[in-house]
């Protein structure tokens, strides 16, 4: 997923413009091949921007627009692909005639591109204006580009974007939707039928509304927050059909006893982290806390003495 976020800062002075342009091309954060300029040279952007402002007698007021396009740590995307997406992003009609300096930053655990737009149009001399509708169009345009590269950056209905708080939480592994995603993903490869799936999700604290008369499954967590299966990524892995197919495969490779043992170990691992983790975050998001190697370690603790070769029997997705 990716998020478009406008950064509100003190952008009404030329010194602020110089600072932000220097910041985005900082060699400690980016590389030469990850920088770009639309209607300008990214390395001389300040002079390019200022010349247009001076030619149009518009050196006062808001000097630049600063926004980022950020990708989550678990997105399968490279810095080069993020740069290609940025190259396409600045071709949007909204940027026609405007100068845009941009660079992909790789110094954080998530890739992100900084865009700095000159507020004075190079061709018309008019200043940048953006309505709520235009902002939505920009986000939709970003969606379409990212979809070409196999990335999904919207949640729910078309135009409904994940907000900054939820993105930051998910980035840190503390999103209730991401916790739900992990629960469904793990139980998907344990349950042998629909009834077991619902019972196992109940054991993890989720209510499941799976009706044959409704297209989607609705999950409700302990706080009453609801989410449909179509909002889990990738959605085609969590359709009713995909889940039922997984259950059928599970029933072919393990009996009820083995299925119960796997679920018991998962529940034991969750319980261990709730006991061992003092923070409320760890208690509320145990699967996120346990994700990766930590989960394997807790499962090892929970299975001691059970006589089950988890590594041999468990699904890789666990």
Quick rundown:
The chain has 318 residues and is an alpha+beta fold. 44% of the residues lie in helices and 12% in strands. It folds into two domains: 2-169, BirA Bifunctional Protein, domain 2 (2-Layer Sandwich), CATH 3.30.930; 176-313, no CATH class.
Q: Termini distance?
A: 22 Å
Provide the CATH top-level class of the largest domain.
Answer: Alpha Beta
DSSP strand tally: 8
Order of helices and strands: EHEHEHEEHHHHEEEHHHHHH
Largest sheet properties: 5 strands, antiparallel
What amount of the residues lies in strands?
5-15%
Instruction: Report the CATH architecture of the largest domain.
Output: 2-Layer Sandwich
Task: From the alpha carbons, calculate the radius of gyration and give it in angstroms.
Answer: 24 Å
Descriptors:
BirA Bifunctional Protein, domain 2; five-stranded antiparallel sheet; three-stranded antiparallel sheet; 12% strand; disordered C terminus; Relaxase/mobilization nuclease domain-containing protein
Question: What's the layout of helices and strands?
Answer:
Elements: E1 2-6, H1 14-24, E2 35-38, H2 45-55, E3 64-71, H3 79-89, E4 100-105, E5 112-118, H4 132-148, H5 164-171, H6 176-188, H7 194-203, E6 207-209, E7 218-220, E8 226-228, H8 240-253, H9 256-276, H10 280-284, H11 286-290, H12 293-303, H13 310-313
Antiparallel strand pairs: 1-3, 2-4, 3-5, 4-5, 6-7, 7-8
Helix pairs in contact: 9-12
